[in-house]
Amino acid sequence: MTDVRIISAAAIGALALTAAPALASPAGVIELFTSEGCSSCPPADKVLAGYAGRADVLALSYNVDYWDYLGWKDTLATPDNTQRQRDYSSGRGDGEVYTPQAIVDGADYMPGGEQDKIDTALTKDKLSVPVDLAMSGDALTVKVGASAAAMPHATLWLVFYDRSVTVPIGRGENDGRTITYTNVVRKLRPIAMWTGAPMSVDLARSEIENAKADHLAILLQTEVKEGLPGPILGAASIATGL
Question: Which residues of 197-230 are buried (b: 16+ CB within 10 A; e: fewer)?
């Protein structure tokens, strides 16, 4: 059974967040690598927005910067987003870095606009480790369950993202278009290592406030090689109220 828990709150300032009920059959995590300067990306952005409206999928959009030379500097891109896509490619060993590219549960990749292939991957790749989030006082507590089977060590990733960002584009391939991006990743960093046993990690509320993003997610992800991302074992997300 997949264990993506989606937890929401009216405001982080209330100092208490109520967890949503466990989902009956969560599907998984979709990561879309996209660019404001890519003319073939808007259809994929719309596909991702559709998944983001579902309670059983954690959909994240990573804007990359390697198309900036075409005439428009992507306003949402970060070097970390670009590096994450390149790290996936290095881990697979295939050199496949393009936009729009979707990666499902860190395991399968396909063109981001091909919803049928994404749907197929969601049915095949299942998360297996429960991840729960709860806010209490000045800390966000991340709880990770045990693995039911022998698993490689994994990294806990903290991902800050904004639910919706609309960008008017003034140059390049999408000149004159206004595009809305969904679940836009602003920042990500590793926060802990998981060895297969239950664990708990506290994050300072001040870090969440400083990030100034309206949502955050936790990804529990293996490495196919040292430092290179592999299959995702568990995930959770929460609204920050910012």
Answer: eeeebebebebbeebebbbbbbbbbbbbeeebbb
Domains of the chain: which residue ranges? 4-239
Q: CA 21 to CA 42: how far, in whole Å?
A: 33
Q: How far is CA 239 from CA 40, 79, 125, 156, 164, in A?
A: 30, 24, 25, 18, 13
**pLDDT over threshold 80, residue 183:** yes
pLDDT of 9 > 50? The answer is no
Q: What is the DSSP letter of 211?
A: H
d(CA 237, CA 102): 19
Structural tokens at position 49:
């927005």
CB 238 within 8 A of CB 131: no
pLDDT band, very low/low/confident/very high, at 137 (cuts 50, 70, 90): confident
232, with CB counted inside 10 A (0-12, 13-18, 19+), is: buried
Q: What is the pLDDT of residues 53-74, one digit of tens each?
A: 998 899 999 999 999 999 999 9
pLDDT at 106 over 90: yes
The strands making up 178-194's β-sheet, listed across from edge to edge, are 4-7, 228-239, 215-225, 154-168, 178-194, 57-63, 28-34, 101-104, 108-111
